[in-house]
Structure formats: structure tokens, C-alpha cells
Amino acid sequence: MRKHLNPIVLIHRTYTRPPLPFPCPDFNQSFHPSTCILIKNLDHMNQDITVPPPSNSVHKPKLRPTLNSYFNKPTLFKAFFFCFLPFLISLFLIAYLNQRSKNSEMVLLAGFCNDSDIANVDSSESKSVPFQETRTGHACSTMGEPCISCTTFNILAPIYKRLDQQNQSVRESDFRAFWLARNKKIVNWLLYERSSIICLQEFWVGNEELVHMYEESLGAAGYDTLKLARTNNRGDGLLTAIHKEYFKVLNRRELFFNDFGDRVAQLLHVQSVAPFSINQNESVQQEIIIVNTHLLFPHDSSLSIVRLHQVYQILQYLETYQRENKLSQMPVILCGDWNGSKRGHVYKFLRSQGFVSSYDIAHEYTDSDADAHKWVSHRNHRGNICGVDFIWLRNPHKSQKLLKISWAEAAFGIIKYQLKKVSLAENDAFAFLRADSSGNHITYSAFCDALRQVNLTGLSHGLSFQETKDLWVQADADGNGVVDYEEFKRIWDATWLQHMDEDCSLADSNEGIAEDEAIGFAVKKAVLFPHEVEKGIWPENYSLSDHARLTAVFSPVRLRCLKQSL
Q1: Which of 7, 323, 447, 515 is deepest in the core (most CB within 10 A)?
Q2: Distance between CA atoms of 473 and 476, rounded to whole angstroms?
């Protein structure tokens, strides 16, 4: 009986064609490639099969595989060498190039830091927390009530912060390390001061990382935060934070001026958490209206009317909101960057509406020119310093003029300013307004033409037709269709910035309860930081912002008022 042969051996024995030199993967002998493939396939089918050496050959010891044999094997080694190893090398090169790029950026940043002509991140506020005496979030006692504090701060959006005065296009927003470090310091200061109300301007709403940092940090500290972006995707906006230990937000409104500067305002109606005492037997949870805004920068004098109109819209909305909700007995606090000094039209307009500057009240400064430059709060991109940041307070029933009259007087003030800029005295100004009129009076058409010549009408941001008409009605006091010299003189000499008598006074608890009492606020303290600005000096080593931080502390007081309605 014929002995059964192993198939591999059979193949080998029946193969008569001379073998070609080719290293078979599992053998040290040379076989034809087709033989190797078949043997290999059979080997996978039966792992126990072994191939004995041919009978006519001498058995040789198994040789160590050479490097060439490894390269010819379809093994993991070939995959590693040709695929994975180049991938590792490419990763190493990418990491190396990134590190070089990062080092170059840090060298550039270091150059900015060391350049005295370029704003630095770390300066006079290198410490993580301010001095103890600047903290205002403490409780004080007036009538047994805790004080409330309010901070307003233009934090200078990184998209506007210039790092190189020679190259205005280099902005802080291009360097994450810079704007992140600076804003972390701002947050630390805000958390340390722990004001009841925080109003920020130039808040970079367009950067999610920065927005998250503020919202998360302030939220963890007990604040409700509300942000509002400027229109037309300007990138920055407003952030108002209300501490929940002091107030709860009852309502909020967003004001869009939709004007030349894409400016906005926030209005918050809040209620005190702790009750305020009206008298010995009655307490109330006081309600307050808070406004946060940032007015247009006056790039030229023709924009003064735009800024005045922005304030006019805020006060109009305040009147409407209070009237509709019957909130006449309520303090109003206006915070923000008003982009105008104490000598400006906006300041005078607000004063005519019963508002007082908390900082000036705390330091007993008057509205006179002598006190106009006692303090500063801003150094603009032109290098000029001035006081433009205010926390305005108006207590319930503060005596005020009708809003429309105050607006007209403020607008006439701008007209007078524009005429005086071109060296027109009273008589010359009247002649300019009269133009070619045959009589000794000013006609409506001549009045409109004069306003166009001083850039107050005819522009997209100028007075509207209706506003011009309203001004004319105020000027034509007797309604005869023309403005004579006496009516003009009344406007020219108008002293509409006047100290107005109070309709409210502090209630005397020994004399009983007045017919109409309300809770208002007295300014207890107001501070600017850095402290040098309180002396009218801008410190060169301060770079946390181009604005100073203003904080005011208020204590509740009972007011006895005459009843009046809006």
C-alpha cells in the first residue's frame, strides 16, 4: 500500500523546474515564488504541518534573518518603518515649529512690555488685590441699614487697546496672553471690592472665552450678570452685574439708539433684598432704577448733538417707564462712560434734570469752572486727560425742569457754542441767524439754514425735522412766526444750569411722618482708582485700562416730599 505523502512534501518532490532564487518567508531554502505562496497557504490551513528538508540535501542550521529579509516581509515591522515612524517624525517637526512660533510671539510681547512707548499689562496694579482701604463692599450703618455700593468701569475692550503707538493696527486682541492677564486682574479687583452694582463698558462681548470668564467668576461670587452688545456687530458692549445679596432684578430693558455710534443702554429695575425703614413701624423693600451706558466719543463738535440726543432718549424712556409702572417714588442711578466733562452739554443737561454727580457730592465739588478739573478719569487715544466717568443719582421728587424744555435749552447751548467757535459775539450771531431777512428778526427758513451751516442739520446724525421744529417753537416765545432780538437774547443769555431748590428734605422723625415720604440715598463716599487721578494726574505706569474705576457708596435716607406726578 502506497504511503500517504504530506502535500507540501509532494509539491516539493513533483516540482521539477529549476528553482529561482527567492527567499521564502518561512524557509531558509530557495523556491520558486509560486511554490512559496502555495506552501504559505497550506501552512495557514494546517498549522501543524512542517516541511522536512529534502532527502538529498544536507540539513543546515536555521540562519538568523537578515535586515533585507525583514524589508521583504509583509510584517508589522514594515508598517511601522514606512507608516508609523514618518508619522511620529512629522508630529515632532510640527511641535518643534509651533514652539519656535510661540517663542517668537513671546519675544514680541516681551518687546512690547519693555518699550516705554507701548502700554504694558503689568503696572501699578501688579498686586492681585487692592489696598484694604479701597474696598467698598462692606456694610455700614445708617438708620440701621446696610449701605449699597456701585462701581462703573470702562475696561477698554482688547479690540481697541493699542499696543504700539507707531503701528496702530497692533491691538491687544491679537495676543491672548495679554488680554487674558489684564482682564483676570480686573475680575480680581471687582470680586475684592464686591460692589452691590457693577456697570462695565467696552465689554468684549464678541469673545466667548472672555465672556465666560466674567460670567463664571461673577456668577460664582453671587452676581446676576446681564450683557448687551452694541448694534452692527461692533464687538463690544455693556455688562451689568447685580449682587443677589443686595438686590433682585424685577425687570430689564434694552435701549438701542440706532444712531451714528451704534450705542446702547441697559435699564434695570431692581428691588432691595433687605427692607429699608420708612419709619419706626414700617419697612419697605426699596426699588431702584439703574442705567448703564456708554455715549459716543466726540470726534468733532458736530457730534455733540448726537451725544445729547442719546441722553435725551434715556431720560425719555425713564419717564415713560416710571409713568407706566407708577414708579415716581424711586431713586435713579445712571452709570457709565459719558465721554464728556463737567463743562460739557451732557453734564449740564443731566444737572437740569435733577441728577447729581456722586463723586462731586462726596468731595464737595461745585459745578464751577474752578472745580471742573479737580479730578480726571480717562486718558484718550489723543493723550488728553479729563473726567468723563460718572455715577449720577436722582432721588425721588428731585426738582427738575420739563424734559422737553431742558432738551431745547441744551440744544440751544450747542448752537451757541458752535457760533462762538467761529468768533461770533451776540450781535454778530443774531445777524448770522437773521441772514438776508428784511426785518430785524429771524425767520424759520433762515434759522434752518443757519443750523445747516453749523452742521447741526443736514447730516445723518443731526437734528431731525421735528426736533428742529420743536426748537423753533421754544425760540418763538410769542408765537408770531419770527424771533426778534429780545427773544434771541433770552436764548443767548439763558442760564439753564442753575442750582434748583429741593422739593425733598430729610424727614425729621421727631416731627412725625410727612404727608408723602420716600426712601432716597445720600452719597457716603466716592473713590477713583488709581488714586493719582483724584488729583488730576494720570499715572504713566497704570495700564489696566484707559479709564479709572469709580465706586460710590450710598446710604438710605428717609425723604419728606411734596406730592407730585410725572
Answers
A1: 447
A2: 5
Q: Measured between alpha carbons, how far is residue 204 from residues 165, 188, 189, 207 in Å?
A: 22, 17, 18, 6
3-class DSSP state for residue 336? strand
Which ranges in the chain are annotated with CATH 3.60.10.10?
148-403+515-562
Helix residue ranges per DSSP H, 239-331? 304-325
pTM: 0.73
Highest mean pLDDT (candidates 43-47, 75-79, 278-282, 335-339): 335-339
Closest of 433, 418, 425, 409 to residue 482, by C-alpha: 433
pLDDT tens sequence across 399-432: 678 888 888 888 888 888 888 887 788 888 888 8
Domain spanning 148-403+515-562: CATH superfamily: Endonuclease/exonuclease/phosphatase (3.60.10.10)
Q: Of 172-181, 423-432, 496-505, where does mean pLDDT reach its minimum?
A: 496-505
- Strand order of the β-sheet with 332-337 is 247-256, 264-272, 287-294, 332-337, 389-394, 356-357
Query: Which helix (H) or strand (E) covers residue 450, if one does?
Result: helix 444-453
What pLDDT score does 77 carry?
56
CA triple 546-460-340, angle to 5 deg: 30
Residue reference for cell 459775539: 425
